[in-house]
Amino acid sequence: MLSDRNYCVTIISALALTVFVFVMRFLPDFVAWHGWDWCGSNCNVRDWLEGTSGWAGFLAAGIAVALTTRQIRQQQKQTDFMLGDAPPTMDVTPDLDDPTEMVVRIVNWNRRSIFIKSIQLNVGNAMGIMELKLDGKEVGLAQMRWPFPLRGWEDRNNSGPHALQMKISAADGDKIINDWPKNAEVIVSMQMLDTRHRTQSLRASVHP
Fold this sequence. Notes:
Layout: H1 5-31, H2 45-83, E1 89-94, E2 101-108, E3 114-121, E4 126-134, E5 137-138, E6 148-150, E7 162-172, E8 175-176, E9 185-192, E10 198-205
Antiparallel strand pairs: 1-2, 2-7, 3-6, 3-9, 4-5, 4-7, 7-8, 9-10
Helix pairs in contact: 1-2
């Protein structure tokens, strides 16, 4: 909730209104009050408020900059998505039918093609691919090759992004992993085709 910009603006506005009402109610009684130790014998509340107005303005400007920066960042993400510059994503979920298997889904939201170079686990000593689907259609495991190409999302009006889905299992020694450790992660290395090919990696936990 605290990351919601509209929520933060509402709370800050309510606090500012409360402070304003408080000041307007009690300021006439405080203006004639002399003798603040912090500012000397010739200082009253009016002088103190004038002296701290700069800090209050600085604080308000800082809050405004933070909110504006967050809004610009969100707008940039939306712009990148519309232009086809959004990065690929990966999610991992347990297979509902077989607890020994994990479902890995890689979606290429970018307009450029990517090559999946490798897929690894940080647990166990062996990993196997049990099922492979490309855009929802099953592909024979014999066609699985490295690097595996995943086309970019060029036609953003009439089709969805291209997605690769795999069911994987792992072994620890000679035993298939059934109870996946909490720190288990899937690591995928990929290369995006561009004027300068970029290599990047995606990591996702096997647990929600």
